[in-house]
Design brief:
Blueprint (H helix, E strand, L loop, with lengths): L11 H23 L9 E11 L9 H8 L4 E3 L5 E5 L3 E2 L4 H22 L3 E3 L21 H14 L3 E6 L3 E6 L11 E7 L1 H13 L1 H8 L4 E2 L2 E2 L4 H9 L16 E2 L10 H10 L12 H6 L7 H7 L3 E2 L1 E8 L2 E8 L8 H22 L8 H14 L4 E4 L2 E5 H18 L5 H17 L3 H11 L6 H18 L34 E3 L4 H11 L3 E5 L5 E6 H6 L20 E2 L10 H11 L3 E6 L2 E7 H17 L1
Parallel strand pairs: 11-12, 17-18
Antiparallel strand pairs: 1-3, 1-4, 1-5, 1-8, 2-3, 6-7, 8-14, 9-10, 13-14, 15-16, 18-19, 19-20, 21-22
Helix pairs in contact: 1-10, 2-3, 3-11, 5-11, 6-11, 6-12, 6-13, 11-13, 11-14, 13-14
Length: 637
C-alpha cells in the first residue's frame, strides 16, 4: 500500500525540497547498512491481494468506497480505480504451516470482501484482467478520489506530454491510445513479499530475477483484453505501457521505463537499486517530511524514510525492493509484482510457494545465480513467458532453451522443493502446493489457457460480449468452489446470464471495423468502397481522425445522370456531397435509445463518437443480424 500523504500538485520548489529529503534518506539507509541495523536471522512472508469489484452482470462496479466502508477492516484499502480493492495479509514466519495459513487468511478476507460487496449490490472476482472490461470503464470518473492517484496522474501526464500509446500483438492485435494512467487499473495482481537480510539480498534478488520466466509461464492468467487474445500474461505489456512516460526522440537515447525488469544483476547491495532509480527517474510527487532520519538513528529508533519510500512507490520494478518496520525493527523485503490475481486462492498460494521455493532453492544450489546465467537470458525468459506462457522457450543456467513446461517439470519443481524443505515447511503443505503447480503444468491448463480454451469452445455461440460474460460468470462460480484451475470445466454460454446484457449499450452492438475516407478524396472512391464492402454509408474523417461528415448510398444515387467525371477537369471531392456534422451517439448510449433515434428519423446508420473521434458505427444491417441471432435463439428454445 503506497504512501497516501502527498501533495496533489507539487511545484518545482516542493520537488527540490523533497529531493533533499530523499538524498538524506539514502544516506541514512547507507548508514543503517554499515551499522547492521536491519533485522536478520528471520525470514517472513506476506502478500497483497488485489481484486475486481463486479456488478450482477460481471462488469466492473465502481463501488470501492462503499465496500471499504461496509467491510470496516484495516486489512483493506482502495486501489487506483473505483472498481478495484486490495487487502494486505498479515506477515508470517517462513516455515511450518505458513502456506496453509496464507491460503486460510486469503479465504477469510475474501469472504469479508464478498459479503460487503454483496451488501452494496456487487461481488468480487480474482482475475488478472477482467474479461468484461471495456475501454469506457477506464474513464477518469472511475478513478478513486484520492490525492495520491490524482497527483500521480497529473505528474505522469505532464512528463508524457501526450496520450499513452498501447500496442500489443498476440493472436489478435490491440492498438489504441488513452489520456490517463487509469489503464493500469485493468490489471490486478497477487503481490508476494519475502523478507531478507542485507548480506544475502543481492543473491536472493538475483535469484528472484532469474526464476521470473518459469514462474510466470506457470502462473499466466490474463490472455484477454477488450475481447482480444493478446499475451498469455497481457498484464506485463499493458502495465509497462500504461505508465510509460518516455517520449520518442530523434536519437537512439537509451531510456528505462518506470515499469521494468531492470538492467543488470545486483552486484553487492540493495543500495544499488535505490541509487539507480533516483538517478534514472524523476521525482513525480512530494510530501511533507518532518522526521530527521539521523536523529532517529542516534536515539536508537528506526527512521521512517518517508521520502525514500514515496519515491520507491512510483517506480515499478517487477521485483521491487521494499523497506519496512516491524516492532521498531527495520527490514528489507523483495516484493514480487509478477503474479496475477486468481484464478483461486489455492492457485495463488501455489504460485507463491513456487516462488518462495525457487528463490530459496537457487540460493541453496547455486549461491549467486549471476555467476551461472546471463542477465539478458533472465530478461528474455521473462518476456517470452509473458507472451507465450507454457509454450515459451526458456534457457536456464547457460543451457540451451527448452519448452517452458519441460524446464518447470524437470528443473524448477525439484529446485522449489529443495527451497521449501530447507526452512522446514510442513511436508504436507509442500506436496499440496507444488502438486498444484505440477498438475497445472502437466495438463497445460493455466488460467490463461482455460480462458482461451473457453473462448474457443464458445465460438459462434452468441456475440463476443456474451461469450466474455460467460467466461467471467464461470470464473466466479468455479472460484467460489475453490478447486484449482487445472480441474475446471470450460465455460458454457448459459452461464453468461442471457442476451439482454450483451446488447445493452451501443458499444456492444456497433461495428468497429470502419471504412472511412477523407473529404478531399474523390467521390468515385466512395462508390467503389460501397460496392467492395457491401455497405451503404461511408464516414468522412479529417486528418486528426475526427468525424466531419458522412456519404450515403442514397446521395450517390441522386448524382446518377448529373455526375459525369469524364467531362470534369478534376474528380468531384467527397466534401461536395457529404452530409456535414452528422448526428452521433456515444458508446455508452443505451441501445434502445439509439434504435428509437434511428427509427424516428428514418436513419439506417448512426456514427458512434468518443472524445470527438469515430470509434464505431451502428447500422440497420447490424441490428438486423442481431435480431436474426436472437430470433433463432428463441426459436431453438
Amino acid at each position: 500500500m503506497g504512501e497516501q500523504d502527498v501533495r496533489e500538485q507539487s511545484q518545482a520548489e516542493d520537488i527540490r525540497v523533497f529531493l533533499r529529503h530523499l538524498l538524506r534518506d539514502v544516506r541514512a539507509f547507507e548508514r543503517m547498512l554499515e551499522e547492521e541495523r536491519f533485522e536478520t536471522g528471520v525470514r517472513r512472508i506476506g502478500a497483497e491481494q488485489e481484486m475486481f469489484l463486479i456488478d450482477q452482470f460481471g462488469r466492473p462496479a465502481p463501488i470501492a468506497t462503499e465496500v471499504l466502508e461496509a467491510v470496516g477492516d484495516p486489512h483493506f484499502t482502495t486501489e487506483l480505480a473505483r472498481f478495484n480493492l486490495e487487502f494486505n495479509l498479515d506477515p508470517q514466519i517462513f516455515g511450518g504451516s505458513c502456506l496453509r495459513d496464507m491460503e486460510w487468511q486469503i479465504g477469510e478476507l475474501l469472504g469479508r470482501a464478498r459479503e460487503a460487496a454483496q451488501r452494496c449490490g456487487g461481488d468480487v472476482l480474482l482475475t488478472g484482467i477482467l474479461p468484461t472490461l471495456r475501454k469506457t470503464d477506464l474513464e477518469m470518473i472511475n478513478m478513486t478520489p484520492n490525492p495520491r492517484y490524482y497527483a500521480l496522474n497529473e505528474a505522469m501526464n505532464r512528463l508524457k506530454g501526450g496520450a499513452y500509446e498501447f500496442f500489443l500483438q498476440g493472436k489478435d492485435e490491440l492498438h489504441l491510445h488513452h489520456d490517463s494512467i487509469l489503464v493500469e487499473a485493468a490489471n490486478t495482481s497477487f503481490q508476494v513479499h519475502f523478507q531478507v537480510a542485507p548480506k544475502e539480498f543481492a543473491r536472493l534478488y538475483n535469484a528472484a530475477q532469474a526464476v521470473a520466466g518459469p514462474l510466470l509461464a506457470a502462473a499466466a492468467n490474463s490472455p484477454l483484453l477488450f475481447g482480444k487474445r493478446l499475451w498469455a500474461e497481457t498484464r506485463i505489456g499493458l502495465f509497462q505501457q500504461s505508465i510509460d512516460t518516455r517520449r520518442t526522440t530523434p536519437h537512439l537515447r537509451e531510456q528505462t521505463p518506470r515499469v521494468s525488469f531492470g538492467r543488470h544483476w545486483v552486484r553487492e547491495s540493495v543500495l544499488e537499486i535505490f541509487q539507480e532509480d533516483i538517478a534514472r527517474f524523476r521525482a513525480l510527487i512530494s510530501t511533507e517530511v518532518e522526521d530527521d532520519p539521523f536523529a532517529e538513528l542516534d536515539m536508537g529508533r528506526a527512521p521512517t524514510l518517508k521520502a525514500l519510500r514515496l519515491h520507491n512507490s512510483t517506480i515499478y520494478r517487477w521485483n521491487r525492493v521494499c523497506y519496512g518496520i516491524n516492532d521498531d525493527k527495520p527490514h528489507i523485503r523483495i516484493e514480487n509484482r509478477i503474479l496475477p490475481a486468481g484464478p483461486t486462492p489455492r492457485d495463488e498460494v501455489a504460485n507463491a510457494a513456487f516462488w518462495f521455493g525457487l528463490i530459496s532453492g537457487v540460493l541453496e544450489r547455486y549461491g549467486n545465480i549471476a555467476e551461472h546465467m546471463s542477465f539478458d537470458d533472465a530478461r528474455a525468459n521473462f518476456l517470452a513467458a509473458a507472451r507465450h506462457g507454457l509454450d515459451a522457450q526458456l534457457g536456464w543456467a547457460g543451457a540451451p532453451p527448452v519448452p517452458a513446461h519441460r524446464l518447470i517439470l524437470d528443473e524448477m519443481l525439484p529446485l522449489a522443493r529443495l527451497g521449501l524443505e530447507t526452512p522446514h515447511l510442513e511436508q504436507e503443505n509442500i506436496d499440496l502446493y507444488l502438486g498444484v503447480i505440477e498438475e497445472r503444468v502437466r495438463s497445460r491448463r493455466t488460467g490463461a489457457q482455460w480462458q482461451l480454451d473457453s473462448l474457443a469452445g464458445l465460438a459462434d455461440r452468441g456475440p463476443l460480449t456474451e461469450r466474455l460474460s460467460a467466461i467471467t460468470a464461470a470464473t466466479r462460480a468455479r472460484q467460489r468452489d475453490g478447486r484449482p484451475v487445472h480441474t475446471w470445466e470450460l465455460a458454457r454460454i448459459e452461464e453468461g446470464g442471457g442476451w439482454k446484457q450483451s446488447y445493452a449499450t451501443v458499444e456492444q452492438c456497433m461495428d468497429t471495423d470502419i471504412v472511412t475516407v477523407n473529404a478531399n478524396e474523390p467521390v468515385d472512391l466512395v462508390a467503389n468502397l460501397m460496392v467492395w464492402n457491401n455497405i451503404r454509408h461511408v464516414m468522412v474523417e479529417d486528418d486528426d481522425n475526427r468525424l466531419i461528415g458522412m456519404v450515403s448510398q442514397r446521395k450517390l444515387l441522386s448524382l446518377v445522370g448529373t455526375y459525369q467525371p469524364e467531362r470534369m477537369e478534376a474528380p468531384l471531392p467527397v466534401s461536395a456531397v457529404m452530409q456535414r456534422d452528422p448526428v452521433s451517439v456515444s458508446p455508452e448510449t443505451p441501445t434502445v435509445e439509439a434504435i428509437d433515434l434511428m427509427r424516428t428519423n428514418g436513419w439506417a446508420c448512426l456514427p458512434v463518437i468518443k472524445d470527438e473521434h469515430l470509434v464505431g458505427v451502428l447500422t440497420e444491417s447490424r441490428l438486423m443480424v442481431i435480431a436474426g441471432e436472437l430470433l433463432e435463439q428463441k426459436l431453438r428454445e
